[in-house]
Amino acid sequence: MLHREVVNACTTGKGSFQCKGTAVQAGKKSVNGVELCYQQTGAGDHALLLMPGALGSGVTDFGPQLKGLDKKRFTVVAFDPRGYGSSRPPIRDFPSDFFHRDAQDGLQLMQVLGFSRFSLLGWSDGGITALIAAALSPANVRKLVVWGSNAYVSQEDIAIYNSVRDVSRWSERMRSPMEVMYGAEYFRNTWSAWVDGISQFTHNPQGSICLELLPQISCPTLVVHGQKDPMVPSVHPQVLLQHIPNARLHVMADGKHNLHLRFAAEFNRLVEDFLLE
Ligand code: TYC
């Protein structure tokens, strides 16, 4: 699947493309003043919204989920947050409310697509977005799954962010897909802007991104964590567990940050079982 095909499918508004051998519909919808690109597959009663990580997009972050989640039981929607993937323009920026803005965009996109109740699956930054969306819109959110996510930033986190700020020091394997999607310059600049953006939260009490919202999350919540995640220290899932009233934790012993890609079959089964309970 080529980036160009996804862009074409999104732009024409009723395109379809193959993602890992499965047919996915793509389109654009006008949401909160921007055109958001989304991908959709499956015909089940239970609608899901997949929320990507920093600079991520539906197809780069969720290929194995678009392909592998049960299409009879679920209708799977993934989206490219504003300024990411094919939801450009606008150029991405990181005002202090950027996670709230993404949360409102995701919720509104599902309304526009005709889904009033759905579950949220959020990876990393997308998990932060999903936590906020679930707290602010409990009537719309059935269940919540987050992994590789944090509700606050510590000095340890800031040190990790700064150690990955310079994308020229990333491995070819990590950097290349991003450069294909964005071009080298947009990627470099936007990644650095993201590091500044997430660092803003250190000015809040306890470095909070959304700590104070966690007690408002009323839906059943599954927090997944990779024991070997080098990006997100394991205190973060513990804090989520402490503050979200109806949460449970599943640790994947060999999982790193991208556990849903590396161990896709195991992850998909875990999530399906939780959603179908
Ligand atoms: N939050 C990032 C994402 O959404 C991942 C990340 C975590 C990046 C920690 C850097 O130091 C970092 N994919």
Automatic annotation (TrEMBL):
The keyword Transcription regulation does not apply. Transmembrane segments: none annotated. Residues 47-176 form the AB hydrolase-1 domain. The keyword Nucleotide-binding does not apply. InterPro entries: AB_hydrolase_1, AB_hydrolase_fold. Pfam families: Abhydrolase_1. Keywords: Hydrolase. GO terms for molecular function: serine hydrolase activity. PANTHER family: VALACYCLOVIR HYDROLASE. This is Valacyclovir hydrolase isoform X3. The gene is bphl.
